[in-house]
Amino acid sequence: MMQLITNPSPQEWETILKRPTQELKDIEATVEQIFAEVIQQGDEAVSKYTRLFDGVEVDHLLVSNEEVQEAEQLITSDLKEAIQLAKHNIETFHAAQKTSRVVVETQPGVKCWQEKRPIQKVGLYIPGGSAPLFSTVLMLALPAKIAGCKEIVLCTPPDKEGKIHPAILYTAQLCGITKICKAGGIQAIGAMTFGTASIPKVFKIFGPGNQYVTVAKQLATQYNVSIDMPAGPSELLVMADESAKPAFVASDLLSQAEHGADSQVILVSTSANLVGEVQTEIIRQLNELPRKEIATKAIKNSKIILLENKEDALNLINEYAPEHFIVCTNDNDFFIENIENAGSVFIGNYTPESAGDYASGTNHTLPTNGYAKQYSGVNLDAFTKSITFQEISPEGVHYIGKAVELMAEAEGLDAHKNAMSLRIESLK
Ligand SMILES: NC(=O)c1ccc[n+]([C@@H]2O[C@H](COP(=O)([O-])OP(=O)(O)OC[C@H]3O[C@@H](n4cnc5c(N)ncnc54)[C@H](O)[C@@H]3O)[C@@H](O)[C@H]2O)c1
Ligand SMILES: N[C@H](CO)Cc1c[nH]c[nH+]1
Ligand SMILES: [Zn+2]
Q: For tag attachment on the chain, is the N or C end more exposed, with fewer CB atoms within 10 Å?
């Protein structure tokens, strides 16, 4: 059962709220070893670690057209319709994030603006170790396509027969992804970082994964690749008072607990009654879950925190910086207005977190492990770069020329000053 802690002092929060995952330093040596082999042996190293970690020998790292076509036959039309509805909503939400060019005249004759350009080569990691997360294909491939990324590579681990789940293949082809690689974990991140004969090197790697994938992504940034964010084992914090329905709260907590033994869920409440009812519901619902064993382990890492007032609750939530934050209280506005650190927020009794995992339209690739303090979840901008532009007329030189000369001189950079002085002189 989840450990119940009543009125902890702020000094105790850090220890109480520690995530159950290993740290970067615990996994670093393994990642460096696998990266070194991928650099030297390419596909062979990817196959070696697929054998070791996924327990399967893969002949071809790339999924064939036949495999994709076969997958389409294996998906029911109901599931295809559900995926298409989710696709529509995710596309609509992300397409609305496009921005138009805003030209600003900072001084007469000095025009500045910025424009977005797609990142040309991107790699998408789709988790597949414990569950085939085909919903993640939608979350990554759709914004990549809307942004206009030209080369999109998808990596996901094969199953014990060396196959990729048909729903992943169906969703990938629905989103127009053609390069699908049978590789997971550290070896997949290494392949997209350094490139192998089968798997191209990319400029930026996206996607969630377990702690090995997450640390590999973080270390990949030392080799000229950027990443979306550390998006590791799923987590959820629910803030609920007596206005929340206990069965709903318990179902939300279990929905993220079933992701993995290293997931963590937290219930924060100001109501002892609600806490008691949620505990009863968790036991009842847990018993009926096929992934009971996994969820039970995650529940052991999890906490219920009973606090006296909403102000303390808010401070604790901002300190924890949850990946997902459900708020279901008599004063949701207080939390909505004051939340500083969270990946994605779900409001009220009828907004389960799983709606955002699949179909409401928001992105489910979100920062975990407290990284919501400094990272956003995946959005359209993550697949683009902003380039700034400027155009200065002779009138503009008149307005800013002297300032540039003076500042360059003060920094002792005469060549900088000359570049402006020549223009000023030419206009006399
Ligand atoms: N933060 C987010 O946005 C978000 C979204 C979806 C899922 N998730 C999380 O993604 C994770 C998916 O994890 P998963 O394990 O199911 O799939 P995964 O694809 O992330 O990882 C599977 C791979 O891990 C590697 N691996 C397994 N054991 C290893 C070991 N001992 N040493 C080195 N490598 C090893 C294997 O190569 C395997 O292919 C879950 O923790 C889930 O909570 C997070
Ligand atoms: N909750 C996960 C993000 O942490 C996303 C997901 C995919 N499928 C189900 N859930
Ligand atoms: Zn989920």
A: C
Is residue 10 a part of any domain in this protein? Answer: yes
Nearest ligand 1 atom to alpha carbon 49: 37
- 88 as an active site residue: the answer is no
Cα gap 349→212, rounded to integer Å? 35
Is the pLDDT at 259 greater than 90? The verdict is: yes
The model's pTM is 0.96
The ligand 1 site (C-beta within 6 Å) comprises 30, 53-54, 127-131, 133, 136, 157, 184-186, 208-210, 212-213, 231-234, 259-260, 263, 323, 364-366, 368
The pLDDT of residue 65 is 96
CB atoms within 10 A of CB 344: 22
ipTM: 0.98
Looking at the chain, the number of H-run helices and the number of E-run strands are 17, 14
Q: Any residues with Cβ below 6 Å from ligand 2, and which? A: 133, 135-136, 234, 256, 323, 357, 364, 366
What pLDDT does 129 receive?
A: 84
Question: From CA 207, how far away is CA 181, in angstroms rounded?
Answer: 14
301 and 354, same domain (yes or no): yes
Is residue 93 situated within a structural domain?
no
